[in-house]
């Protein structure tokens, strides 16, 4: 019997609604006709342009859109069949979705330098063990810009993982939601598996990353332009239709506009990357000062810290595992701070994912921080980081 999964976490905060997208949604509010499963022509045409601007020529027949990354990944995994391999740690929503898809899920540790992908040697060993036990490993879900660790996968590491996946005939599903939020334009180059193994890769992106509000679920998948990819798309569309995973027409209109990336949308993405970078980098500095271990964040709004060095001080406060650490930090910081158990990590580990954006109290504060040329000089950001540092100081002090 599989262990009971932790209760789903409440929805996390996102960015404020972009005025231009609100106008698109309002303009389409009178549309009563349903959107087809997989997205209508306007949405899929916008998706083709979105991927083409990232170096991936795409035909509309390769795309599936759905109201959220969770139902889209569920439809994909159910259509692939078999067992799925995930990383440890991985995004909190991957494991529940993989279980709902019906196959077994297996977690493979990440390499030392980054999260988001499995260690390639551990991947090979895990696949062979699963097959030896009668399992059917069919898919690998990875993320080149990772939630929870906030790291980017070096191209050479990704190449090794893609080679291992291809050798074991695994379909790669690459979550690239946070790919456009790299902090350092001159740092690690972001390369996806579809650029290395296009015939074996599905690219998944959740528009709620930067392009659309978190409360307007919208996601897009690009499937391989092969006979298998076309068959997989047909099965995925059938699954989406069966559970009515279809867009509300106003959200579809706003999502299509976001995927076209007019200047206000591009400016919002750039501002989000600037804000995420400022917040996560500053939070990383305070974590290391308090004695926590953490990979330096490189993209997205998250970072993943190991407070194991503070175990004695935490035990004095009655904190001995990730569940208790989550409860304590969530109460002290005033926002959900999920522990390692939510990311398929070891519950006994004193690891936790921080989302510095959630430290800003409301949409107004987040908008002011987005508008600031230097976010760290924003009074809202300064207060949030000071409170964050104070809570960490309390923990380190025992």
Number of helices: 14
Helical residue percent band: 40-55%
Categorize the overall geometry: globular
Number of strands: 10
Strand order of the largest sheet: 1-7-6-5-4-2-3
Q: Describe the largest sheet.
A: 7 strands, mixed
Low-confidence parts: none
Using only CA atoms, what is the Rg?
A: 21 Å
Mean pLDDT: 94
Set down the secondary structure blueprint.
Layout: H1 19-27, H2 41-52, E1 63-66, H3 69-80, E2 83-88, H4 94-100, E3 105-109, H5 120-132, E4 137-143, H6 155-167, E5 171-175, H7 193-196, E6 201-206, E7 219-222, H8 227-242, H9 249-260, H10 263-289, E8 293-294, E9 303-306, H11 311-315, H12 322-333, E10 351-354, H13 363-371, H14 379-397
Parallel strand pairs: 2-3, 2-4, 4-5, 5-6
Antiparallel strand pairs: 1-7, 6-7, 8-9, 9-10
Account of the protein in words:
Helix 4 links the parallel strand 2 (83-88) and strand 3. The strands form 2 sheets. This protein has a 7-stranded mixed sheet with strand order 1-7-6-5-4-2-3, with helices on both faces. Strands 8-9-10 form a 3-stranded antiparallel sheet. The radius of gyration is 21 Å and the shape is globular. It has 14 helices and 10 strands. Helix 3 packs across helix 8 (227-242). By secondary structure, the protein is of the alpha/beta class. It has helices at residues 19-27, 41-52, 69-80, 94-100, 120-132, 155-167, 193-196, 227-242, 249-260, 263-289, 311-315, 322-333, 363-371, 379-397; strands spanning 63-66, 83-88, 105-109, 137-143, 171-175, 201-206, 219-222, 293-294, 303-306, 351-354.
């Amino acid at each position: 019997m599989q262990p009971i999964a932790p209760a789903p976490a409440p929805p996390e905060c996102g960015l404020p609604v972009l005025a231009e997208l609100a106008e698109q949604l309002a303009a389409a509010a009178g549309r009563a006709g349903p959107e087809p499963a997989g997205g209508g022509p306007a949405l899929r045409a916008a998706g083709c342009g979105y991927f083409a601007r990232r170096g991936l020529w795409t035909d509309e027949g390769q795309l599936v859109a759905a109201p959220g990354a969770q139902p889209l990944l569920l439809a994909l995994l159910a259509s692939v069949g078999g067992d799925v391999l995930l990383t440890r740690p991985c995004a909190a929503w991957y494991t529940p979705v993989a279980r709902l898809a019906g196959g077994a899920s297996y977690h493979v540790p990440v390499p030392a330098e980054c999260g988001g992908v499995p260690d390639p040697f551990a991947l090979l060993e895990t696949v062979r063990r699963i097959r030896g036990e009668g399992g059917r490993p069919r898919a690998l879900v990875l993320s080149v810009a990772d939630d929870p660790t906030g790291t980017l996968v070096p191209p050479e590491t990704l190449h090794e993982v893609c080679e291992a996946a291809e050798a074991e005939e695994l379909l790669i599903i690459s979550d690239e939601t946070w790919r456009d939020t790299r902090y350092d334009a001159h740092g690690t180059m972001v390369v996806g598996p579809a650029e290395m193994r296009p015939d074996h890769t599905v690219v998944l992106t959740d528009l709620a990353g930067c392009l659309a509000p978190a409360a307007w679920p919208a996601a897009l998948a690009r499937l391989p332009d092969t006979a298998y990819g076309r068959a997989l798309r047909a099965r995925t569309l059938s699954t989406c239709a069966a559970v009515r995973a279809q867009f509300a027409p106003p959200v579809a209109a706003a999502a299509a506009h976001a995927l076209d990336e007019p200047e206000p949308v591009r400016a919002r993405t750039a501002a989000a990357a600037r804000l995420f970078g400022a917040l996560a980098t500053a939070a990383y500095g305070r974590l290391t000062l308090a004695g926590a271990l953490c990979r330096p964040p490189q993209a997205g709004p998250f970072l993943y810290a190991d407070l194991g060095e503070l175990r004695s001080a935490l035990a004095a406060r009655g904190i001995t595992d990730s569940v208790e650490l989550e409860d304590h930090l969530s109460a002290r910081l005033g926002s959900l701070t999920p522990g390692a158990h939510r990311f398929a990590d070891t519950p006994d580990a004193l690891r936790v994912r921080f989302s510095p954006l959630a430290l800003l109290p409301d949409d107004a504060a987040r908008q002011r921080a987005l508008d600031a040329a230097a976010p760290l000089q924003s009074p809202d950001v300064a207060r949030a980081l000071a409170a964050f540092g104070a809570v960490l100081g309390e923990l380190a002090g025992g």
